[in-house]
């Protein structure tokens, strides 16, 4: 039996933390260091959020035999400077604290490798805000093909019996798809890396533009989904 608590899952990059160019700049540097073409800025922005290996192969067209080298170059630079240069989005942590104060469980569900996600949250002083943190395997070759779907599923499974309703919050279409595939609503945020209309086209239940609107949107989303019998 589940109780009446709410479980709120947060994406990481583009939702909780602003990479401040560390992801796009880091990918560009890793590609250049590997002697590979660097995509235009708009294409680099599209690479924030999905699994890195998928972005490198699908957007940057990195050959399979160069993929591990590019990833290693990127991770080295990200650990050296990228995590420290990233910044929490203003007031988003306040929304997390408010949800916790209201009795909700809060967790992170990201396609970033889980050990790296834990490091980033610790560096930014956010790790203790969350009841659990879920990401991809440290060895990205072992990542599930369905990406965010499996990660959301793992977060829900860890808290099985502890909640009765759940909501996902994220900035990209794959956050919406991961939530939908697991039967939960998704609130999109407008301060991340989604292209215009991306979240709406993916079927987000709501899209908010400011962090102070997050908690009211969660309440509204839960009420609407409950009234429709989908939670």
From TrEMBL:
This is HAD hydrolase-like protein. It comes from the Bacteria. InterPro entries: HAD-like_hydrolase_sf, HAD-like_sf, HAD_2, HAD_sf, PGP-like_dom2.
């Amino acid at each position: 039996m589940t109780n009446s608590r709410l479980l709120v899952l947060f994406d990481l990059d583009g939702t909780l933390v602003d990479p401040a160019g560390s992801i796009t700049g880091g990918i560009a540097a890793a590609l250049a260091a590997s002697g590979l073409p660097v995509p235009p800025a708009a294409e680099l922005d599209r690479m924030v959020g999905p699994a890195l290996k998928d972005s490198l192969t699908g957007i940057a067209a990195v050959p399979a035999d160069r993929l591990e080298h590019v990833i290693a170059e990127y991770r080295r630079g990200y650990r050296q400077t990228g995590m420290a240069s990233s910044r929490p989005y203003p007031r988003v942590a306040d929304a997390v604290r408010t949800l916790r104060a209201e009795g909700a469980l809060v967790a992170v569900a990201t396609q970033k490798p889980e050990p790296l996600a834990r490091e980033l949250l610790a560096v930014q002083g956010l790790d203790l805000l969350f009841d659990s943190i879920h990401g991809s395997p440290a060895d990205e070759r072992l990542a599930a093909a369905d990406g965010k779907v499996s990660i959301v599923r793992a977060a829900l499974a860890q808290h099985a019996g502890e909640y009765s309703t759940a909501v996902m919050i994220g900035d990209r279409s794959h956050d919406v798809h991961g939530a939908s595939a697991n039967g939960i609503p998704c609130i999109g945020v407008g301060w991340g890396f989604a292209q215009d209309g991306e979240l709406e086209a993916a079927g987000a239940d709501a899209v908010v533009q400011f962090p102070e609107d997050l908690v009211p949107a969660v309440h509204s989303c839960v009420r609407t989904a409950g009234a429709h019998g989908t939670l």
